Structure prediction request, 260 residues.
Amino acid sequence: MALAGVFFLDMEVNCLPGFSRIVRVETGDTECVDCNLTGGVVGMIPYLNQSERCVQCGGDRTFSELVDPTHDEMTRKCVCPADYELVEQVGKRLLESQMCVPCGPDGCSGCVFPYSLKETGECVCASGYTTLYDASCVPTEVYNGVVVAAVGATTTFQPLNLNNKGILGPSVTSVVVRSYAMDSAVQCMRGMAVGCSLLFNMCVLMMYDVDSLPCKLYLSVRDKRTSYRRLPPLFDGDNTGHLHQRRWRPAGNHKYHGRW
Prediction:
């Protein structure tokens, strides 16, 4: 029997406004939960696996200078009075609800944690957070824990020389792999399908070389994610030999066969 206000999904999608996106750690299943059923809104700060939480508008009494926002049922968001801005975290302390904090002497920054305002007026990742290629922020400790697998990896590969019947051509260093592999691995580890897809395709680009940067990161993420949702195996051509069993061989048609 279906649960009221809960929708189960088979793939990564964006939930409707007012619905929080929940990824179950045990199974990897995704649900959209209607926060409005409890009079709440979708929180601004997700969990490590990018699951969103439903929070209330007001009610946290941790700091005396914070005031309660109002709940806008039309937009399904918390709204602060003039000269206040909405927060869900103060410093490193996560609040129990969304609250309103007075704006500083220079006005409201408009930067929601973990972003902070630079002198130029730009919102950037706060101290202790690392900026990914899509301008999102992840805790630096989490980032370092994923990319440690990149030690000793290469971003150079030898593509086929198509004019010489399968003989390997000159070595090429991939700027794309060097720029995006580590960030996509962090996203994949945090449950984001777009990061996993990008990482998989870069591993294919590197000819499935287990010493290449994206393939090493793929193997590391795969081993760390076994507790809830396993990553698909990667194999080439019509051969079902998996990446961790052997290196790529320059023969046949090579395609990405993993499904996410």
Summary: Residues 1-11, 236-242, 244-260 have pLDDT under 50 and may be disordered. Residues 222 and 236 are 18 Å apart (CA to CA).
